[in-house]
């Protein structure tokens, strides 16, 4: 607004419309928000150039100059060289602030990519090593009774471990789910001093290492009461481990149900119980389902409590109360430590099945979570 | 039941009167409250009894061994020499390595998801992190042992060669030997730590991302409107705001790293030396000690193992409680963490 002209003398003060409109102010372009996500040509080219250049540099270094062959070393060197080149290229034509910004972006993205690669490699590696065992149908139909560790993959299977896992997890979850959700309802809906004590203890017990939960059941049930090592003992260990986890997850979900809904229910004259049953729990249902299925996925994959309590068996056993019962994680643990290549392969096959089971649970949990916005 | 006569009285001046709750709860509600309280008591009894049981079980051990239990490093029941100093040190070493790897990566991943990722893939990335938390620990153990270990021995050797003067990176071998002993670098706390870091990372990352997402929009926009770059905005708004979440999430991860069993038991070879040489073969952690020794344990040894487990539990409890306090202080309201 520097074009405001001075009034022409003070002889004629009443000239209100005579303030001349600022002449020929160049028309301002319309306001546009800063585009933070788009990239200029300079951005793209310096990124691509640095990536290609550093790859070539490190390749020459590794191939011709240094006696190094480790792929991890290559990737690390490439990344470091890339960062250095990127900084150098950027600082040719940009101020320091931009250089720092781009460097930070490259570092952050690099970290995220590394984690993605690690996750994919962990999942992919398991399926890759399990691939020799997976096509044989006997893996899903037979147990390991009478099969020696060095027997070929066309003999024996892990159906006993799958069934054992399912039985143990079903018992554990069948007990932990109602108790956990009930406790959460108590802590959130009834409340009071006692509920605070319960919440403190439950939260504290989520810190219980799973192996200690297994050791507890082992000492109480197997050593003291002389209960046989069995599927039921394993289920108890999983239950003890999972109960605080499920109770806490349900507690967190129930706590975010808006208080207004509860008050509306009560104001309409519904009793507290009817409000909880018809308003609070249906509202929280998708969240509860997600939290609980993720809890179940954690329980399915847990090895250490089972290791102490179930005993390992090679035969099919549908009775959780008597005799040892095999489960998937335990089978994997035993197989991959055996040292027999064929048996290790079998172990990886079982690990693939376990992983597929967890992935399935996970997809179901996601599906349920997505309904949250849609319905009700 | 609710025919109280004074209800009609304030209507005279026409003001709104809040609905008075009936003087006593209906039967269903009383039933509901009592049964909910009963469930709460049952769960309290179950969970509380574990802690109590562990505490009581460790009394004979502490009476027998006294403070030697904390200073002795051997675990040789036949010589009546049982102690957890080496075991605790090994647990700490593995957890430290795991955190040193998991902390920066979790921070970067959380920043990427909350600030850099395109909006379309954000939800997918978040569920990838959840998926990472759901992958069974034995899978990470296998990944660490069979995929990473053959590569990581080179990294360990390189670290030993160039940073061997730091006690942390010392190995009982000649670093510059023409044919170096690979077996000296396997089955170490370092490799176990790498596997454990994958397990604890999603937990830390989820907490951090949640806190970053809650950084106030107004201040973000203010920073950008003043001409700051994206990194400038992150450095001045997101990171200071999320400091509590960063520290708390890391401590939650530490709590989980201390108690991890199967991946560690799969990778390490047990050794009861008091050492911080994380690159060297052999170490031991409380949980893998329990996994290895529960089978042949007599009653008194079992009580010693329970005591070791109890000490581990107390440490993780302490860490988790501090983490919860820090995270809660930084959070505005209750938020879902699934």
Task: Provide structural commentary.
The complex is a heterodimer of chains A (376) and B (338). Chain A has 376 residues and is mainly alpha-helical. Chain A has helices spanning 41-65, 71-93, 96-130, 138-141, 159-190, 193-205, 210-224, 231-255, 259-267, 272-300, 304-309, 328-336, 341-374. The model of chain A is unreliable at 1-12 (pLDDT under 50). Chain B has helices at 27-65, 68-71, 85-116, 119-134, 137-163, 189-213, 217-225, 230-241, 243-259, 262-267, 286-293, 299-330; strands spanning 75-76, 81-82. In chain B, strands 1-2 form a two-stranded antiparallel sheet. Chain B is flat. The model of chain B is unreliable at 1-8 and 332-338 (pLDDT under 50). In chain B, strand 1 and strand 2 (81-82) form a beta hairpin. Classes of the chains: A mainly alpha (376), B mainly alpha (338). Chains A and B meet through helix 2, helix 3, helix 5, helix 6 and helix 7 of A and helix 1, helix 3, helix 4, helix 5 and helix 6 of B.
Relevant terms:
heterodimer; A: about 375 residues; mainly alpha; disordered N terminus; B: about 350 residues; two-stranded antiparallel sheet; 12 helices; 2 strands; disordered C terminus
